[in-house]
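Posting here for the record, re: iron/sulfur cluster.
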Amino acid sequence: MSFYNLYSAYNWDEVAACIQTKTEADVRVAIAKDKPGLEDFMALVSPAADALLEEMARKSYALTRQKFGKVMQLYIPLYLSNFCENRCVYCGFSNSNRLRRKVLLLDELEQEVSIIRQQPFKHILLVTGEAPVKAGTDYFIAVINQLKSSFSQISLEVQPLSTTEYELLVKQGLYGVYVYQETYNERRYSNYHPAGRKADFRYRLETPDRLGAAGVRKIGIGNLIGLEEWRTEAWFTALHLHYLRKKYWRSKYSISFPRLRPFTGEGFQPNYETTERNLTQLICAYRIFDHEVDLSLSTRERPMYRDNVMSLGITAMSAGSKTGPGGYSNGEALEQFAVNDNRSADMVADVIRCKGYEPVWKDWSMFLQMA
Ligand code: SF4
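Prediction output follows.
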């Protein structure tokens, strides 16, 4: 029994239609509840909730202060490789895209890390395309072992692996894994993922089950905002989170909000516009639904939006990011997507302090344990 079994009991169109029927009264009920359920979440992401966004923001702000205090985790991505065997129509690393490919050798990794080490980051997110022959488990083990002494938390955003491989990586010191379903609309999934291992919707959907079974401490999920209608995507993501929390209760969870950004390549444009106001509704809805989930906002968003929304529910932000292998040491344009917030980590940390928050350079819960 995996999440796929539960997922299959729901119909995308029925969920989408149900969300549309929710009224302002339903939204008020959901906001007032201590523990809103999945039916309430439909109201929170419905069109009717737009009129109550201020109330949602107030509740989300209060819950975040209560559960997390006034801290903001900061992390930095390190791209190890842009080789990819998949064809995703929205991504600069897609194997159909003509791009110079590179996987960092261990001495090149050291050059990247020597630059990152000049900043106070202790949480690093290692990112690759999905090409196991170029960057597989053995490579990840070597990289983790090289970085262990410099970073207290090492997370991965790479191709889905087996439970055994995750177990092996946890033993080496792996902290978290982020794996996004991109879209929970199985019927249309193949439109975006026509070739490669990623074309297997079910294998990807069951990856968080394998992570939970392997004892990965933190599991990040989410969907790529802009592929499909965002309200329905959000509900299936909430269903996934709810399922994982109950089944793999030892792990911590995170939701990210990657919105489609311009990239070098096939010129795919988002099918469904999701405005910043919509994104704010989404952030508040997740916080009201799940008081403890980490909500992470990347440099895909513009600086002013990140600054304004950070206190409404966000608990983690990337900063100073480069999105291609070798990006920190040689600045070569091998990037996956165009970053929207190009400020340095110091500048972002200053803004966080100005807003009365404390920048935390590793996971906040570990910070509190060690404080
Ligand atoms: S989204 Fe991931 S799997 Fe798809 S082409 Fe980009 S790097 Fe490869």
